[in-house]
Amino acid sequence: MADEGASLLGIAENGALHLVRDRVELLATSTDQALDRLVEAQGARSALWTPDVPAAEHAFWRRLHTVETGPDAERRWCPETDRVLRAGGWFPGRAIPTETWESILLQTGEFEMHDAARRFLAEFGAVGVPYRDPWDSMPWMQFSLDPLQAIWDGEIIDDLAEQAGVELYPIGMRDRGNQHLAMAEDGAVYAGMDSVWLLAPTPDEALQRLTGRIQPTASC
Length: 220
Fold this sequence. Notes:
The protein is α+β, with helices and mostly antiparallel strands.
């Protein structure tokens, strides 16, 4: 990912790299050129760092202060869920490629992506709420909808699936890597690490749970 998690990086068969968000932009025509550009951008940020100066606020928290909910938000979920998801990189009609995730996880963990996970990740893949210090300043639990976070945890996902009694496909993690998120073929979302539980029976309900406040101040 790039742009502090707001964009995905994708590579074409000819080696060209693209930035993917609400549109696709060519980053470079070769991997070497792309790496040079990414290192240059990171170096420019690093040059601005000085000791004892707080790091810049994550882009999510800056966007959260300005993002507005959509006019149809309450038809799908509560307005706060809509606002948090938009700050995390989602927007109505979002559709990003899932082929890279699908190919990597099929080769490394023998995970075969089902249609429910494919639809979900096309709309919400790479969306999330980043962690920030101090912990008690977090309104929502950290989560990241990135299936590659399970790339080396195939046995754990298999164990969670066996406990749940359904086939599960990884869709991300939450609580700073302490809980895997995985989806069944019917769209139900499960969470767990050593044990598993049903987070929500539908993807939209799961997103509302993920964006629920740690200490609720009002009903959603």
